[in-house]
Amino acid sequence: MIPYKTKSKKVPGSNLSEVARSVMFIFHSIEKRTKRKPYIRSAYFKKEKIFFDNFWEHLNQKSPRERFKRLKCFKPAIELIKNSRNKPISKPEVYYSKIILHRFYGLTADREEFYVQIKEDKKRKRKFFMSCFPPE
Predict the structure, then answer these.
(1) Shortest CA distance to 26 belongs to which of 101, 129, 135, 111?
(2) Residue 113 above 90 pLDDT?
(3) Distance of CA 128 to the CA centre of its chain
(4) Of 16, 42, 94, 97, which sits 20 to 30 A from 33 (CA to CA)?
(5) pLDDT of amino acid 136
(6) Which residues lie closer than 8 Å to 131 by C-beta, 6 or more apart?
(7) How far apart are CA 127 and CA 109, in angstroms?
(8) pLDDT at 25 (0 to 100)
(9) How far apart are CA 60 and CA 66, in angstroms?
């Protein structure tokens, strides 16, 4: 899998509240562009919309330490989704065959690795930004 090299660095901050404040500022700038559900358009999926519905629910299920790690990758993850044309690893979900999980691989400007996961619902023909995280 070929990584996409982003121009942005990880979100700065030394604790969860600082990083969350920066991420919410980035998210609200995306949210302001539409009156309905916030989305970004993906280069890989031929400019189809990627919605944020599942991201916040998924993030709130994690521990504060894990949330901190994942939110630090938010800004480069958005850039990767918008600009990357590199092929992801795609596999169907184990329990529900109508869902495909796409995992993109990226590098920040500081050469730190991270992954972005997008869930595709084939039945409703929609895509959702699930998660962004550094390698374990």
Answers:
(1) 129
(2) yes
(3) 9
(4) 16
(5) 81
(6) 55, 58, 59, 70, 115, 116, 117
(7) 27
(8) 96
(9) 10
Q: Could you list the residue range(s) of the whole structural domain that residue 10 is in?
A: 4-133
Tokens standing for residue 135? 């390698």
Question: Does the pLDDT of residue 1 top 90, yes or no?
Answer: no
Q: Which amino acid is at 9?
A: K
Task: Name the nearest CA neighbour of 86 among 24, 18, 28, 4.
Answer: 4
Q: Please enumerate, as own/partner, the contacts of 41-50 that have beta carbons within 8 Å and a separation of 24 or more.
A: 41/82, 42/81, 42/82, 42/118, 42/127, 43/82, 43/83, 43/84, 43/85, 44/84, 44/85, 44/86, 44/87, 44/88, 44/104, 45/127, 48/127, 49/126, 49/127, 50/81, 50/118, 50/127, 50/128, 50/129
CA 83 from chain centre, in angstroms, equals 12
Please determine, for residue 93, whether its predicted confidence score (pLDDT) is greater than 90.
no
Q: What average pLDDT does this structure show over 99-124?
A: 94
* pLDDT for residue 43 is more than 90: yes
Total domains in the chain come to 1
Residues above pLDDT 90, as percent of the chain? 89
Tokens 């970004």 belong to: 40
